[in-house]
Amino acid sequence: MKSLIGNMTFRRKVLFFAAAVSLLSLFLVCSAIVGYDVSTFRRSLVETASAEADILAKSAASAIVFFDADFASRVLGGLEAEPNVSAACIYTTDGTVFARYARGKQGAACPKKPGANGHAFLSSHLDVYRPVLFEGEPVGTIFIRTNTGALAARVRNFIIIVLIAMAVSLFAAMMASYVFQKALTKPVMELAKTARRVSGGNDYSARAQVYGNDELGELTNTFNQMLDQIQARDADLRRSEEQNRSLLESLDIGVSLIDENYEILMANPEYCRRAGMTHDEILGQKCYCAMNKVEELCPECPGRETLRTGRRAEKILEKTGPDGKPMFLRLHTYPLFNDRGGVRGFITLSEDITRDKIEEQEKEALRGQLLQAQKMEAVGQLAGGMAHDFNNMLAVIMGNASMGQVQTSPADPNFDRFNRILDASDRARALTLKLLTFSRKEQINVRDVWMHTVLDELVGMLSRTVDRSIAIKTLVHHRCLVHIDKNQIQQALLNVCNNAVDAMPGGGTLTLECSRHTFDGSVCRECGKRSSGDFCMIQISDTGVGMSDEVRKKIMEPFFTTKGLGKGTGLGLSVTHGIVEGHEGHIHIYSEINAGTCVRIYLPMSRAAAETGQDPAERRIHTGTETVLVVDDEPGVLDTAAALLEQAGYTPIRAMGGDECLEIIKAGDGDIDLVLLDMVMPGLSGSALYDELKKLAPGIPVLLSSGFSVNGQAGKLLEKGVQGFVQKPFDIFALTRAIREVLDKPDQA
Fold this sequence. Notes:
Strand order of the largest sheet: 2-1-5-4-3
Shape: rod-shaped
Structural class: alpha+beta
Number of strands: 22
Number of helices: 20
Largest sheet: 5 strands, antiparallel
């Protein structure tokens, strides 16, 4: 019964309980009324029958005493007027019936013996017994039997009335219950319907209709408000999930969720891309299988440390990417905890730092190149300083030797001695020129030259000295005009060719190529220089023994050589490097063991439209009678220059340094026709002294003398107005020629 009621709908429950309560209430009320009415009717019957018995007892007392049976019968006959009395009897004290009365056939109903004083209800009648007293003494008993059919009829009528009332009440109750349950259950059913839409279809936009302002209406409003909040939270959650998904999908960082068994539970697209798998394929895979294609846990895995300690961890791992190239990843792992505080997995953030690693390696290489360049610069400065001092000494030697040779007859034995001194001095000067070239400060005779003519001359020299087992080829892909010191570039190329020849002891092929190359402004990885524009590329390749990477990295260092003792100074390629750098070019070397070497030299193209040439000056003294102010800080150089000028007919005036020069100019500038100015002096340098000379005597021409490059500080002074330049160390021929060229210029005439 309980389960049956429990399975009923709310509407049926309302109807059932309304009907049951109505019927039970009506039944109880009617039962009470019937019970009360029956009880009252029975009491009335008892009182009536008892009263009649008392009356008959008084009348029958004398009849019993006097044995007047007829009178007693007449007394009982008076009961004929009472329709409910069916029988009556008068008993004597010994229980003998003295008189009786019976209505119809019911007279036999009198009991044989009288009962005790009182009454008793039987199934269909009421029996009443009363004593008959005479003068206070019992003389007999009165018995009256009353028919209870009226009571039964009354009860039946009441039952019919009750049933009719119950039926009417039940109908009214059912109608009222129907109206009530409809008013009550409709909002509840609406709530249930809305709840089913929300739970079944996740439709948080559904709302229940409000039917009133009662408790159910308040409940419905509360339910709708709850749905409003749920819908807002659901929208926020969806928006947050969408944002998080978009964020994860747009990140260039791999993100994954991994459980304690190292199985991937979630991964963003970048993580899948690095694994070379789709999202569906990667789910459930072991992280080390998916990322590293191995069957065992990576020994350096940071996730293992996170699972063990419950703290974040970080590692840098190297793996092979989907494209087969090395990939460097920085892994961050963060723990995930369960409800009991235990670690149930970890989140992995993997950052691709391959580019940073490559850039770091490139920076390290550039740092090494910078250190190497700084070292070369320091060595170059040392070499330049030494060459400067050596040039001053050579200037004294060569000046005096050339002057002595001029004053000596060719038949004199000392003439040859002076020649040998001058030859040795020339070789020493060539050595200082190499040192100056290595220090990147020396370019003497710079002009526009067609590179293919330089190569032709170089091949002519090589063909006379190189073993015939080595074939020499020249390939001119483009005619390139370059602005160079021809002698220096020939020396640089000759150094490379000599190394190439030495690398082919068993013979081979030496190839010289000339072509145009354009740089786009990017940084060269080999030399670290940034170049742009058109360059002439001279490529010298051989089929020799080649060299290792270690040797190739050191090949440009000064005094480094792979040749045996006494077979090389180690300055060849370092001088070549200095020459190329001094011409604002750069050099690349590529080599493999037993596969030969390829050297590429890049020189900037000239802007000139045609080649210019200059014939070598003839070897003779250019005499004159002008007055020349010689300015130098070295007494030996000063005396030698003055002696050379006197030998050529000039009148020299000595000035030891810039201050003495200015004093002489202030004292009598009209007597001075030219100033021979040393560029490097302590105190007032050549550049500062020239500025003062222009202020004091702007009409006096200046000839600059220096052992350094004409394209360095000397070049700047030439641009400022210096009329000429003579390279130290000089002899009488070079010095007098330079003086004559300045003095004979049209603007100096």
